[in-house]
Structure formats: C-alpha cells, structure tokens
Design goal:
Length: 179
C-alpha cells in the first residue's frame, strides 16, 4: 500500500482536530448546569419556608419538582462527561479516587440508553405532577383533558422509543457487528 500524500495526511489531521469545535458546546452545557442549579435553589428557597403549612399533596409536588430538576442536571452531567470523552478527548484528571465509576466506560450506545432513560424518568415525573394537580382550579385551567391526553401520549412515545432503542442495541450486540 502506497504512503498517503502530504495533502491527504494534513486533511485527515485537520478533520480529526475539528472535534475540538465541540469543546465550546460542552462548556455551554456547564453553564446550563449552573443555570439549573440556580433554578433548583430558587425552587428550594420558595418551598422551604412553606414546609410547616404545606399540605402533603403540595409537599409531594414540591419534591417532584426538585427531583425533576435533579434528574435534568444528572442528564446534563452524563451528556457532558460521556460526550466529551466519546467525541472530543479523554478526561485526564487526577481525581483522587472521586471519579464516577461509569466515566470512561459509557460508549455511544450506553449514552443513548442513559439519555432515553433520563428523558422517560423526567417525563414520568412531569406527568405524575400533572395528575396530582387534577381538581385544582389553576392547574385545570392550564392542563385540561386534552393536554393531559397529549402528555400521556408523549410519555408513551418516549417509553416505546426507549424500548425500541434497547431492542436495536440488543440485536446489534447479538449479531456481533460494531457500528
């Protein structure tokens, strides 16, 4: 096999280096994570003083809101670390043993599954919150029967998509092919 030309080699090096164009996007996800933290703290500050006079339903809704925000933040961290390591560069950090066990082991297929699982969980929490608000005048005005029906349809679409993605990954693994 003949040696590659200088032009081809330089082109391939430039193409490979272009992955660094993703780095600012991951930095943007860090900013998004900080934004979610601010929203979480704002929600916590809003609900905490009400805890002694809050009904159990209101407390559950408040907790579901905080869980929803936390799951979204977890999703951001997974995409941030896994995406960076899969598509840009390995994180070469001295973590003092604090490195999460999944870091460096989540491939694109695993990232897809973690992503869809997080989306399904977030969707389920959002749907549960809406169902718990049934009968409340302000919630009924915003979420009538039609809106609730669409929330269920969208959630089921996420669930079915996740099952189909898992089935495709399973079939690909069984076939022994790498994509």
């Amino acid at each position: 096999m003949a040696d590659k030309s200088v032009i081809e080699r330089k082109f391939e090096q430039g193409l490979f280096a272009s992955r660094w164009l993703m780095a600012p996007m991951y930095l943007g996800l860090v900013v998004s994570l900080a934004m979610l933290m601010v929203v979480f703290l704002r929600e916590l500050a809003y609900y905490a003083p009400q805890v002694l006079v809050m009904s159990s339903d209101k407390a559950i809704l408040a907790i579901l809101t905080l869980i929803d925000l936390t799951l979204a933040a977890n999703l951001l961290v997974i995409v941030l670390f896994s995406g960076y390591e899969n598509f840009v560069s390995k994180l070469d950090i001295d973590d003092g043993g604090d490195r999460p066990s999944w870091m460096g082991t989540v491939d694109f297929s695993g990232l897809k599954m973690k992503l869809i699982a997080s989306i399904v969980a977030i969707s389920a929490i959002h749907l549960l919150k809406r169902f718990m608000e049934i009968g409340q005048a302000d919630a009924d005005a915003a979420f009538g029967a039609t809106e609730l029906k669409w929330l269920v349809v969208i959630h089921l679409t996420f669930v079915i998509s996740g099952v189909l993605m898992a089935a495709m990954d399973w079939m690909t693994a069984r076939s022994g092919k790498k994509y």
